Amino acid sequence: MGKKYNNVLEMTKDISDDKDFNKALEEEIKNKQISKALFAMRCKAGLTQKELAEKAGFTQGKISKIENAFDNELTLNDLTKYCSAINMQIEIGFSDMDATLADRVKQHYFALMECLTEMRRLAKGDTSIEEGVEKFHEEAFANITTGMLDCLLKVKTKEEEKRPLHVSSPIDIKTLLERREKELTFK
Amino acid sequence: MAGWKLEPSPFFDSRFKRFQKKHPNEAKAILNNFDTYISTLNEGVNPINIKAGFIHHEPDGIKAIDQKGGKRQINAKQVIYFSAHGNKNTACYFNRQ
User: Fold this and answer.
1) What is the mean pLDDT of residues B5-23?
2) How many angstroms separate the CA atoms of A14 and A2, rounded?
């Protein structure tokens, strides 16, 4: 069994000693993340390029061009039409360039709270929907807390101090009591 | 989502280096297409549903990937053959037509 790699870039960097080639490949792969995502979404939707082109009002050639484009070559118009054809919507977010991962976790938390609040607001007045929302909240609570607990356990850095196991001979209660009695008698 | 691993065949190293030296643009394009294919597999998409101009379905579950979509490539078709096994391993071969 030979060496295994997690991705194409890792494999290429290990096999190829041409640094310029490796760098060019890395740039190409990293700068085509959106088109790769679009390709995967189309395949997930079970569509060929031709079928998607018909739905989006594009030619097949245009779809091929989009799926091979660098991220900075894609237009919002093309993205919107492409995503619409596979029943997806685009969400654009803005974040501080200096935002840390911790900041992003907090942002997601507030976004989550907003969605749940909106869900409750929309459900008000309709008993069946309210019941559904309540069930969803319970499910979300269970999943989120399970996930968070898993993260917490993985992030624990201190190992519990391992106490050495002390093995002693079996306790002879009778002898102990006799010894204690003698000690008390001598005192 | 992880799952698929790449395991080059015994001949891959030498053939790849030769090909890369002679046809760097084509090699880059093929590897980029290969990366797209693997990323899509890792999204949980069934290989049967992965359809693109650069993918060629060969017998016995083998897929061939060529350089289509790359810029500045020559006309000759260059391919990687690999097979997808049920245990989520991908064997890489490198061949030139």
Assistant:
1) 85
2) 13
CA-nearest of A86, A79, A78, A80 to A46 is: A86
Q: What is the pLDDT of residues B29-80, one digit of tens each?
A: 999 999 999 999 989 898 888 888 888 887 777 788 888 776 655 444 455 5
* Residue carrying structure tokens 């061939």: B64
- pLDDT computed for residue A160 by the predictor: 56
CATH value at residue A15: 1.10.260.40
Domain range for A76: 8-85
Cβ of A28 within 8 Å of Cβ of B53? The answer is no
Report the 3 state secondary structure along B48-72: HHCCCCCEEECHHHEEEECCCCCCC
CA distance readout (Å), A111 to A47, A108, A118:
32, 5, 11
* A110 and A72 inside one domain: no
Chain segment A71-95, per-residue pLDDT in tens: 999 999 999 999 999 999 998 888 8
B15 touches chain A (CB under 8 A): no
pLDDT of residue A2: 73
Range list of β-strands (E), B1-96:
5-8, 55-57, 62-65, 78-84, 89-92, 95-96
Q: What is the mean pLDDT of residues A3-24?
A: 92
Nearest to B49 among A9, A46, A67 (CB): A46
Q: Judge if A80 and A28 occupy the same domain.
A: yes
Across chain A, mean pLDDT equals: 88
Contact yes or no for A2 and B10 at CB 8 A? yes
Q: Is residue A164 in some structural domain? A: no
A158, B33, B95 from B66: Cα distances, Å: 50, 8, 10
